[in-house]
Structures are given as C-alpha cells and as structure tokens.
Amino acid sequence: MEYDYLIYNGLLITMEEGLPVIEDGAVLIKDGAIEACGATSEFSNINVKAHISADKKIIMPGLINCHTHMPMSMFRGLADDLPLDIWLNEHVFPAEAKHVNPESVEKWSLHSCHEMLLSGTTTCCDGYFYEDKVAKAVLESGIRAVVGQGVIDFPAPGVPNPEENVQAAVEFVNRFKDVSPRLYPSIFCHTPYTCSKETLTAAKKAASSLGVLFQIHVAETKDEVKMIQGLGKMSIVEYLESIGILDEKTLLVHSVWINDNDISIIMKNGAGVVHCPESNMKLASGIAPVPKLIERGVPVGLGTDGCASNNDHDLFGEMDMAAKLHKVALLDPCVMDARTTLKMATTQGAKAIGLDSITGSIEKGKRADIILVDMDKPHVTPMYDPYSSLVYSAKASDVSLVMVEGKILVQKGEIL
Fold first, then answer.
1. How far is 410 from 404, CA to CA, in rounded Å?
2. Which pick of 71, 195, 251, 407 has the fewest CB atoms within 10 Å?
3. Are 351 and 272 in contact (CB under 8 A)?
4. Model pTM score
C-alpha cells in the first residue's frame, strides 16, 4: 500500500488521553486521514509518496477557534476602547448596515480564513449573516469550519424580514449540509435579548430536527439579564433550559455572568461553552468562571470572537492570555495550567463544537488536521516543557506548515 505523507523526526504531541509526548515522532497519512502515529523508527519500511521532515519542530493537532465572526475582519480597529453598548450600537451596527453585503462578506471571510490558517488554526466555528458567502470562502480556503447562519429579531443583512429569520437559517443548512466533509452548517441565534422566546425555540427545534449545532451568545455582560423580557427571577441559563434550548448540540458563547447553579445546569444538559478572554477583556465584559466549568466536566473551547472586538484571530495569543487571566483573577498561579489551556484549543474545543470524533487530536482514524510549530527560535529556547512552550512562548508566526484533511495549505509560513 502507498501512503500520501509521512511527517517524521519531530516532537509529537498527539493530545490523546494522558497527553503523551513522543520525542522522535511521526504521523502517517492517507486519503486525508491519520493512518498511524508513533516513533519515526516504526515507519522505516513504509511506501510513501512524500516525506515531510519535522526536525526541530513540534507536530501537533491544528488549533480550533470555537467562536468567530469571520466577515468582521473588515472592521478590525474600527472602534476600540469603548463600552460594549456604545461599541455595538453606535459603531458596529451602523458600519454593518453600510458595508455588509455579499461581496464584502465573502472577501473578508476569505481574509479571515487565511489569517487563521497562517496562525495554525485548522478548524473554526463561525456565526454571521450572508453565511452562504462565508461557506464559499471556507470551501475556497481549505479550512474546516462550522458555519452558522445568523438569526435575530431585527432586519438583518440578507434577511430584511425578521419573520423569515429561522426559515432562512433552515434553507441555509439544507443547502450546505452535504457539500463538503470540511463544512458543517449551523444555526446561530444572536442573543436571548435580540431573539424572542418564540424565535429561540423555533430555531432550536429546527437545529435539532436537522441534527446541527445551535450557537448563541449567552451572559456576556453583567446587565444582559435586564434586557431579556419575561425572565423574572430566572438566570439566563435557567431561562434557556426552561424553554428547551440546552442540550449536547448547544454552544454557549462567552458565559461570563453565570453562577454555580448555572454551571450545574450546563453540565447536566451537556452543552458546550466557548471562552473568549481577549474580547471579554477588551470590552470589559468580565471574566468567565472557566476553571469551575472545566472542573465540573463542561467542554470549554477557546474563541477569538470577531476582529472588531479582538483585532486578531491568533489562538496562540489567546491561549497565553487565557492561562494568565485566570491566575491573576483567582490569585492562584496553578490554575489554568498549560496542558489544560492547550486542551481548550484542541480536544476540548473539538468536543464543544461536536467535532471530537473528527479532529482535535492526532489519532488513527481522525482527519489529518496537523500543524508544525518551529521551535528553533530564540523566544522558545530552551524548551523544558513543550506544553508550556506552546502556551507561554510560541507565537502564531512560528507555525511553518498547516495541513487540513490531509492537504497542505501553509508551507514555510506562506499560504499555498
């Protein structure tokens, strides 16, 4: 049998259970899938089309950005250093009304795909409007992505009549459900305060019947609870549970202002959470109780959010920030250690968005979504612990090769 690639002679971090490190590791790839991994010496008599040396590099799974708005890279730096309500209502919404159209969405989504690929992200989870154009950019770029058509109870780009918002999302899912093994359509309700109870339940019912992920921003700001009609004394998480929104195919984005009971509810229902520390810090939204969520077994992934509220799609920077933020917030240098943080950007992120059987680790049978990180640089030398080096020292620019579905998309730090 002839295989497609053998990546060999690198420090292999598979992110499998137990987090093993293989000093002189190799990965064998055929038809876009991982056939085997282990020590380079195990593959000496294999017939392979192409060999890729990973000398002085780490071989690891591609990173997973669990929350972004790809088209919003067009608004990078548009309005910084502002409170969320002013930022959103006085700057972002007017800019979207003026500049968001099918052409701009496709152009800037492709731009974001390239930015993520260059920084080692091989999978992302997106939510926006004109999501068919986002899907087109995903297909062109080669990245793996969950793409969620936005639902909101206001006239929106591409859906001027709010009464058609859920139906538009359903049509989007049906159109793209079987287009590519790298593309996973989804339904994305903006927030519990911009979507009525009726819209939320209709959208969730549609997502469940179609078997796709349901995404929603939740408890991002302290005052959000005051903006939701009919909440009474319930928390936002209690409200979402009461109307049947929470299950293992629900992704709760931000989840900053939640309490211990909310965490129990999330865990009980099997929902995933996305932590966006840099966006939350920049907008002064607060600090999500991520260590508690992880301790309770909730799958928590990392997200950059859109470039309008973060300014980049760099998950290496996001990992570094996430680990340090919680240490200082809890005055505990041991919390959010490097291994836990790297799992958020790989295995746990994959689990949160429902793709853990496909990507997130280097294991036989999973798709070949793999990156090489160059460790032969001053800022990562010496390397006592590869996990610590990846989280606290490595930079996005250290990514030298990116492969998705067994196809090389970035080589020597450049998009092919």
1. 10
2. 407
3. yes
4. 0.97
